[in-house]
Design goal:
Elements: E1 2-5, H1 11-17, H2 21-36, H3 46-53, H4 55-58, E2 90-99, E3 105-106, E4 111-115, E5 152-156, E6 162-168, E7 179-186, E8 189-191, E9 194-196, E10 199-207, H5 210-216, E11 227-230, E12 249-252, E13 262-270
Parallel strand pairs: 2-13
Antiparallel strand pairs: 1-11, 2-3, 2-6, 4-5, 4-7, 7-10, 8-9, 12-13
Length: 316
């Protein structure tokens, strides 16, 4: 089923929205990052350390590969903070890449690439693609983000296989549930601020528990996007496989105030000798308004995914 998120007034939302919508949320993100992304003195945090220590019991199942969707762009920058000033609830990601074919050992040098929509459902490079429901135009956010690069980036794993990203909680768009796209590359190198060469070993998506996502979407600036939100059970890509299917472990920075941000973690168990085309499996739905006319690398792909779905059900 779907959950209807209307622009109803509630106490928490009013505290965040009254006179200042996006500006207030921007301040929220900055303040939240200071606590959500604070590491310990040696450059690691307790969650990342715990994740690295527990890999052997968490990575026995190879991650489920799915389509990269129509919003992928080449040339994302190597950087930890991918927000570029985009407003939203802070989200810190700690992803650990391990070799599922070799005792779940960390994959040193693996390049993890992520990309996702902003709080109103817009992707950089495709800012005129209608996210469905009712949302302001992306240009109304009033931020200084680069419309070709925001909320996209790479990080390269150290000896522990861990990468860290600072971002915001993604919004949603029809007909998808809340998600983050991810690729794992090996064999390439950093060049001109991006990652070049090598092989894509895994293409997947990261997912969020429904109750947490739905609470976030009552806050500013998310609440300005109203309509029918797709829950995990009805999503065309999430396979119900829990962590192996990309479901993040989430921890609130402050349990009583979700606006302060979340920490998300997951072990990505991959085969570093495999090659993944990004076609993947799972249907997902084309962008609600079709291919945007200003797509920087051409129109989103419309070919049928490898699971045999029709072209009109290509994943996003």
């Amino acid at each position: 089923m779907t959950g209807n998120h209307k622009g109803t007034s509630i106490t928490r939302r009013r505290a965040l929205v009254v006179s200042g919508g996006t500006v207030a949320a921007g301040g929220l993100a900055v303040a939240g990052f200071q606590s959500a992304f604070a590491d310990t003195a040696d450059g690691t945090d307790a969650d990342a350390t715990a994740s690295a220590r527990s890999t052997s019991s968490e990575c026995l199942t190879l991650m489920s590969s799915v389509t990269e969707g129509p919003y992928y762009l080449d040339g994302a920058l190597v950087r930890k903070d991918i927000t570029e000033g985009k407003a939203g609830v802070p989200l810190t990601l700690r992803l650990t890449v391990v070799d599922a074919t070799d005792g779940c050992t960390p994959v040193k040098g693996a390049a993890v690439e992520i990309w996702h929509c902003d709080a109103w459902g817009y992707y950089s490079g495709y800012t005129t693609a209608n996210p469905g429901g009712s949302a302001p135009a992306e240009s109304e956010e009033g931020d200084s983000a680069d419309d070709q690069t925001y909320l996209r980036g790479y990080q390269i794993a150290g000896a522990d296989g861990v990468v860290r990203f600072e971002t915001i909680f993604p919004g949603w768009y029809t007909p998808r549930t809340c998600h983050i796209h991810v690729k794992v590359h090996t064999g390439g190198e950093k060049e001109d601020g991006t990652y070049e060469g090598g092989t894509v070993n895994y293409t997947g998506q990261l997912f969020f528990a429904d109750d947490i996502a739905e609470e976030i979407f009552t806050l500013a600036p998310y609440a300005k996007h109203t309509g029918s939100y797709t829950v995990l059970a009805d999503d065309m890509v999430y396979d119900g496989g829990g962590a192996a299917g990309g479901l993040l472990t989430l921890k609130a920075v402050h349990k009583k105030d979700p606006s302060k941000g979340y920490k998300g973690s997951l072990t990505l168990a991959v085969d570093p000798d495999a090659e993944n085309t990004g076609a993947g499996s799972g249907g997902g739905g084309t962008p609600p308004s079709g291919a945007p006319s200003d797509a920087p690398t051409g129109t989103p792909p419309s070919g049928a995914p490898t699971d045999g779905a029709s072209p009109s059900a290509s994943a996003s």
